Predict the structure.
Amino acid sequence: MGTPIELGRLFGVPVRVEVTVLLIAALFIFMGVGDNPTGQELLNQTTFVILLFVSIFLHEMGHAFGAWLFGIRTVDVTLSFFGGYARLDPPPRRAVEDIVVSFAGPATNLAIAGLLYLWLYNGGLTGLSDHTLVILARVMQANLFLGLLNLLPGHPLDGGHIARAVLGMFLPMTTARLIVGYIGVAVGFLFIGLDLTGGFGYGLMIGLLLVLVASQEIQAARSSRF
Ligand SMILES: [Zn+2]
């Protein structure tokens, strides 16, 4: 949505942000505080939302790192209204490439969650205010959530790529694509039903997008039979 703005490069990878990210960030900030938030609440929530987007960005850089292992170029990494995406050229072709590159994103979030857990609950962080500790605990939970959610085995989630590559080793690729497509539709409806992100229908929008993209994958897999 909109032309992304290039912020700079990290490890040679152009980093871009869609303007609509500001909109969704603002919604996350205002939905996360009470009706009459104090300055401190606003500051805490803003810090949390910034760290949430940093976590999404690191997820995409995880994909870029996985791609780099196979000599695949990352054209750019973009933060978008619906999270983020990394454009790879050429896209992973072999199953092992797809599995490693797809897993590297959620694995980054799980690693961040694990490190924060160790720091927070094993006395590694001293001298931090209660506010900071609460924010870091929320960032830990968010990363756990991002990691696990993206590993659900439905198209177009990372877990869908992994499941398709694994199933493709035993089944015809068309069948693997269909199975992962149907799981993607189911995951989309799960999102719509639970509205997991809490309030203002963001989970609903993500769910609808998943259903749409997974349905297209089912259609594409069906037509590739002929
Ligand atoms: Zn990912």
In short: The beta strands are 5-10, 13-17, 73-80, 83-89.
